[in-house]
Amino acid sequence: MREFVVEADGGSRGNPGPAGYGAVVSDAATGETLAEAAEYIGVATNNVAEYRGLLAGLRAARELDPEARVHVRMDSKLVIEQMSGRWKIKHPAMKPLAAEAATVFPPGQVTYEWIPRERNTHADRLANEAMDAGRRGERWSPAASRADLDTPSTAPAAPAPEGPPGDATAGAARVRAAMASAAGTAQGRGAEDASGEVAYGEVASGAGPAAERGAGAVDSDAADTHGGRAAGASGDGTSGAAPTGRASGGRPAEHSAAEDRAAGAPGEGPAAGTGDGAGKGARASAVSRPATDTPARDAGADADEPGAAVAADADRRAAQAVATPSSGWAPADMGAPATFVLLRHGETPLTPQKRFSGSGGSDPSLSGIGREQAEKTAAALARRGTVQAVVASPLARTRETAGIVAARLGLDVTVEDGLRETDFGAWEGLTFGEVRERYPEDLDAWLASPDAEPTGGGESFAATAARVAEARDKLLAEYRGRTVLLVTHVTPVKTLIRLALGAPPEALFRMELSAASLSAVAYYADGNASVRLFNDTSHLR
């Protein structure tokens, strides 16, 4: 059976405004371009143009081979999530388009994947060519198209990552570069122990799927505000810095994804397709650390110069250590890592109401359910006996949760202001729908960029991340080599996980975090970090 890749895009210069779409069908095995389609469609919204592009791409693929398997890749989070069935479709102009797209191939023959905008340049160029042609009063012509020629065949090399301790640093890039040469050797070592799984203390032994999937809420506390910002950017899930327009005059960021989310709430449900965590009994282990740390070499160094072979060999050995980890995470001289056990506070009365509840609102205390969750967490941590200190956000719900746990452990609670939740400004106490009704433009801007602030001088997610990173570094210096329980909120927990993984900002919005869930990150003396647990709620069952 043949396999095709369909990449599609659409744009509107005004949203709504003059719009067009582009789609390209390529051979999944060779990458060869098999068909292109583009059209100026008059005045329409970004989302409608994207759906039209999807339809054109699927139809082109069907003309090539109606029996083929098709993998659709788009930078519209909205279209991908709706066509995958994870988000509801409410917009009347998109319902018939989605229904028609679902019938082009039989069910199960098409799969969908969101990709960053920079990986969808071919379809993007086609859409812009169509809009340019429409502006001239012409139809798009395949013969005149330069989209395929202007699309880079390979992605530019990524710069070596930099960052403070706790972020993924340059060593990760060196290891990734050597993985290809190590893969063959790793396959021949199948008899060796490749588990490499480590948890904080013993808590990970009970890790399992989240017991409380997607209370869906907004709290960044009441539940998970990040779900409302699908993929951390605009309504279409564009990654990275939110665009205000295409380089060649294309669409501005889309914002209607929030309107079309399942249940219409900014909770964890619709955006968290993998929110139940790993499989039952699984551990969230990070990649193993290489047994040898060698300085990163200049990427432009000549392979024949003195020392090049030694450095290359060290990189291969480092890659092999990742591909087939040994029983330990670090060399013997690395010392014990500082381990942050991250506890999201228990439920508050706002949690089931799905309301924004950050650090600038009413500061609710735990509900009866939330106190019960804190007691169960305390019992679980007492059984493990690994926590040596307790640090909490200054908000009432975290201090109350921390107090219950600390009393059971016989420890005091230290308050760290940097662990507080994001300030949602005038949105505090409102549901997502209420914010949409009262502050639509501000919400659109917030959905489009992590640098945007909520109405009334709230705090952006970018500002929250900087504050949390500063608190992390302070605590790492204070609790070097110790296991510390940090009782905090959704945004700080997800931010610490994201930074430890070296993941981009949009990763923040692809994680589900339940009330009273446990996560864990270990920080090593060389500046690296490993995520050992995420969103574990097994102790609540």
From TrEMBL:
Q: Which SMART domains match?
A: PGAM
RNase H type-1 domain spans which residues?
1-136
Q: Which Pfam families match?
A: His_Phos_1, RVT_3
Please give the Gene3D superfamilies that the UniProt record associates with this protein.
Answer: Phosphoglycerate mutase-like, Ribonuclease H-like superfamily/Ribonuclease H
Basic and acidic residues compositional bias: what residue ranges?
A: 252-262
Bias class Low complexity marks the residues at: 165-174, 207-217
Residue ranges for the region (Disordered) are: 131-174, 207-333, 350-374
InterPro entries on file: His_Pase_superF_clade-1 (IPR013078), His_PPase_superfam (IPR029033), PGM_Phosphatase (IPR050275), RNaseH-like_sf (IPR012337), RNaseH_domain (IPR002156), RNaseH_sf (IPR036397)
Compositional bias of type Gly residues: which residue ranges?
266-280
Q: Which NCBIfam families match?
A: PRK07238.1
What name does this protein carry?
Answer: Bifunctional RNase H/acid phosphatase
| Organism annotation | Streptomyces lusitanus
